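Async update (no meeting this week)

Hi team, since we skipped the sync, here's where things stand on the single-chain job. The sequence we agreed to prioritize is pasted below, unchanged from the tracker. I ran it this morning and attached the output directly underneath so nobody has to dig for it. Comments welcome in thread, and please keep replies under the output.
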Amino acid sequence: MNNPLEFYFDFISPYSFIAHKDLIQIKKKYSINIIYKPILLGGLHNLHGITAPAFIPSKAKHMIRDCKLIADKKDIKFKFNSYFPIKTLNLMRGVLIAEEDNYKQEYINQIFESIWGDGLNLNDQNIIDRILKNMGVNPKTFFLRSTTEIIKSNLKKITKDAYLKGIFGAPTFLVRGKIFWGQDRINFAIDEIKK
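Output:
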């Protein structure tokens, strides 16, 4: 299966967390090239002029219950983060730094797990620093790099490119230019790769 699966995500999205956990299992089962594409979900929503479901009270209530149902069904440890919304701007920039330094997958795993598995307050810089130190990363250097123009502009570019492709939410999977939106569409994306 030579066609890559592009996975557009933001740590703020609990559905992206569930999709990420699915992708870990899928990668074990199939020989698929999965490309993690970090985006700023808030920025993407602004470009489209839409409001995230989490900020519409009636939808937010359903989303919390829905995520729990899906996670329980898939036997995924999940806790809706009581500190939501987590400010993910620097965390998403961090994906690009981790990619440059070759610890991208470990970083993504740790941040997702900290937010949605353990329910930690990643709005607290001390907690983020501790996570980075546990990965052997210098927090001060990490966050200095996150404010460099190249990192900032790269994340904006990936988000803008997603918008131009018609992507409007997270998680989204892209295969051969076809969009599959939502954690529950992952198998359709896999089927497209198998064609």
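Quick observations from my side:
The domain at 5-194 is CATH 3.40.30.10 (Glutaredoxin).
The two ends are 9 Å apart (CA to CA).
Reply here if anything looks off.
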